Each structure stands twice: as structure tokens, then as C-alpha cells.
Amino acid sequence: MSKIQTNPSIITRDVDKIAAKTGNVYESVAIIGQRARQISSKMKEELSNKLSEFASSVDNLEEIFENREQIEISKYYERMPKPSALAIDDFLADKVDFRDREAEKDEN
């Protein structure tokens, strides 16, 4: 599991910095939303893969309560920063590639 350095708590963001990347705050938010969905999907896939190792065909109540490793993995993912916070940090750090499709249509 990789260390994530993003602060998981709620922080105030400078809307002007977010809008400056594209010239339009709504376009920036749409790009951040798309990136957040990508991150969320990846995190969900990772969690499902890790938890599938513990899957059993028998639903035994004692077995469910005894599986501490599965509980610890779930708690780790719950403590991780939200995908939206990671997406905003990626966007502001220029780690997100995006293009203006309208400008591309005008050029062609």
C-alpha cells in the first residue's frame, strides 16, 4: 500500500487557482470530477481485489467476526483521503492531462 500525502480533512480551496487552469471554473470542476471518478474506480478495484482474498463460500458468523485482517484493510481505505481531494490536488499540481475539445474543433 502506498503512502498518500494528501490531507484528508476539509480545507478551503482558492477558486481562482482552480479556474486559472482552464479559464473557466465550471470546466475545471468537470475535469476534477472526471479525475475523482477515475481515482474512485481504481481505489474500489484495489479494495475489491484485496477483500476477495478473504472471500469464503460459507457464511459463518464466527468467521466474519474473526477476520481482523479484512477489517483492518477496510479501515485503512476508510481513512484514506477522498477521491475528490486527491483529484483537486492532482489538478492543481498539473498532474492531470486534459484538452479543450472546442478549441480542437475550431482548429480543424
Description:
The chain has one domain (15-97). The chain is 64% helix and 0% strand. It is built from 6 helices and no strands. It has helices spanning 15-20, 25-52, 61-66, 68-79, 83-92, 101-107. Helix 2 (25-52) packs antiparallel against helix 4 and helix 2 crosses helix 5. The longest helix is centred in the middle third of the chain and has 28 residues, at 25-52.
Count of separate DSSP helical elements = 6
Query: Which value, in Å, is the CA radius of gyration?
Result: 19 Å
Fraction in helix: 55-70%
In total, the number of strands is 0
Q: What are the low-pLDDT stretches, counting only 5+ consecutive residues below 50?
A: none
**Domains (count):** 1
Structure summarized in a few sentences:
With 108 residues, the chain is mainly alpha-helical. It contains six helices and no strands. It is elongated and about 60 Å long.
Any chance you could write out the topology, listing elements then pairs?
Elements: H1 15-20, H2 25-52, H3 61-66, H4 68-79, H5 83-92, H6 101-107
Helix pairs in contact: 2-4, 2-5
Key terms:
single chain; 6 helices
